[in-house]
Amino acid sequence: MRKKNITMKQVKERSGLSSRQIRYYDKMGLVFPERTKGKHRLFSEDDLQRLNKIKILIKEGHTIEEIKDLLKTPEPVKKENDEFLEKYQGKSRYEGSKLKSLYPVSNREHLNKVLSKKNKNGGN
């Protein structure tokens, strides 16, 4: 997974999107930036490419829901989800069920905290 170290200002300059558009795509679950302690968004090169795809799809007239279906969940998130499921499968009331994605989640902030702790602890 690529490091998320590109600021909102840099993303705006490189994508041609406005801050408002980028925040909206984040709110709608189309892009998944990390947050600093000060709540600033940080993006990776993959996120920037994804935003450029979104920009093209919007220009082609696709709706947000169509774009969600076309882009699906980004690969790094899918991999983290698979690792999480392997570790915790069978340890909850969902034993035996196959979860294809953690998106959308009802408490995204909590999910980000859990994943951040996991990354800091070397994946444990």
Question: How would you describe this protein?
Answer:
The chain is mainly α and 124 residues long. It contains 6 helices and 3 strands. It has helices at residues 8-15, 19-27, 45-59, 64-71, 75-88, 108-120; strands at residues 6-7, 34-35, 41-43. A 3-stranded antiparallel beta sheet has the order 1-3-2. Residues 88-97 have low confidence and may be disordered.
CATH class categorisation of the largest domain: Mainly Alpha
User: Residue-averaged pLDDT, rounded?
Assistant: 76
Biggest sheet: strands side by side, in what order?
A: 1-3-2
**What integer value in Å does the Rg equal?**
16 Å
CATH architecture descriptor of the largest domain: Orthogonal Bundle
- Strand fraction: 5-15%
CATH topology of the largest domain: Multidrug-efflux Transporter Regulator, Chain: A, Domain 2
